[in-house]
């Protein structure tokens, strides 16, 4: 390792080298905040020197190693640290070149800092002094070479920051053109750095992979995608790195963009058939350790090939890229709308089986339909707890689903034999909840109505952005208006109780401003202009809109939803669709009831809060279950002779005896 004091522009002006950003580096990610700080540092240094105060600015460390050389071309320096700072410096220099009026300075910047005069061949990778990673390269080339920037390229951080500098320098030029000419001489020219050259061939301990992993760009942690990419590529020689990156990893970036970390976590769940924590800043390092443990000893190219194939499948799920089957695409769109990312590992497995001929189009369509029914029913009941840990384990059932003749029925049976918190809600639960819930504020209300409309008309109005939920009985009642007459003597109570009832809601187009129109006026618009069957059925056949009308329509909607839109097998409609045969020896954490209350079976007014793996809180004191049971029986005067109790026999959670589920 060779460390040297240097100046930023000195290393950029060296025509004997070209800096390369290797494929394992992250894409350019600096934003406006960092660019503003960078610009202020330049101006602060420049103004200080113009006032006669000798001033410099330390710009950090640049770490690199020299790769193989090509005869007749500049040396290739591979950046390990400093990518974001050097790229930003280059964007600033390009902006300065493009804003300044002095042609000689323009040419000086171009030849001195942006392009290599010593490159003997017209190869852009050597002609341009900083070779970006592949996904940023085309935009960067266009900016350097002053070519047209394509519309989709204008969203890139490279172009956005370049334009920020252009605008800032134009404002500075408006103040004083001479200031632009001083920016290099008294500003950037005074930016000092420390260059660290690694010599891995000479010193084996100077491993670029280990050094890169220990670094943290501007305090921003490497994402799971960054860490995994580095792990898979850094141990290879530069030629292998480029080959594997372009052949496999580039495909991930093109297909998934900012979803790669989530994809890797879901891929891990698919392969491990178990739950891993969500991919967040806090969990990246833990997930990375899990990744290395899970795939230890795997061939790198085989693993990259698998990641590349599944990335295409994942893009169907998260980005809505077409599978080639419009009906499957529609089901995936519905799954995205519901918001069940917990199921993405399982869905990836299903799509992979389908792509490999183990599921037919019809079978996959029906399976996705079952998942939609399951999750929407659970959302209506208000169930979601435990899905993140339990749903990924459905991957274990993929071989059984593939082998079964009736795959739709098989999946229903699997879902109906989960534990209670993961249950498939039956029709009785659904009827009860739908009849009393505030359906207007239900997140999936419009989606449910759209599915109902689709079921009635066999047409899919999902792309109509003009649709909105309408209150038939309006949200406010005039003091002495027609709606009070419509509702009768008990108008205020009926309004309060039924305003957001599912029976009082429908879908209309946004351009129908109905507000407090009378029912007769609304009914005419529903019939002639709404264009929605759901705005007609059980509405336009009514002469009045009152409590009885709302209840009748509520009954029709609920019955239709349960029989036609979200149907489950007849045997499950009134049964308890969960299994009490859960593995013995489970702790409170395994049951996922920490933070919940449990009840004493013989006196349900006695409650304890579960606060740990085996602990409960009762009357401000922490107890194990068996001693607490003895305490309660002692207070009741019914303690047994031995004083020994199996606590789980005396307590229940959600109607289930703990002994049966623990």
Question: What's the arrangement of secondary structure elements?
Answer:
Elements (H helix, E strand, L loop, with lengths): L1 E6 H5 L4 E4 L11 H19 L6 E10 L8 E7 L1 H17 L3 H12 L9 H4 L2 E2 L2 H11 L12 H19 L1 H11 L3 E8 L9 H7 L9 H10 L4 H19 L3 H13 L11 H11 L5 H19 L7 H13 L5 H12 L5 H21 L5 H4 L7 H6 L3 H9 L11 H10 L8 H13 L9 E5 L10 H6 L3 H8 L6 E5 L9 H10 L18 H19 L22 H4 L5 E4 L2 E8 L4 E4 L2 E4 H12 L14 E3 L2 E2 H4 L1
Structure explained in plain terms:
- There is one protein chain.
- By secondary structure, this protein is α+β, with helices and mostly antiparallel strands.
- A hairpin with an 8-residue loop joins strand 3 (57-66) and strand 4 (75-81).
- The longest helix is centred in the middle third of the chain and has 21 residues, at 361-381.
- The protein is globular, with a radius of gyration of 33 Å.
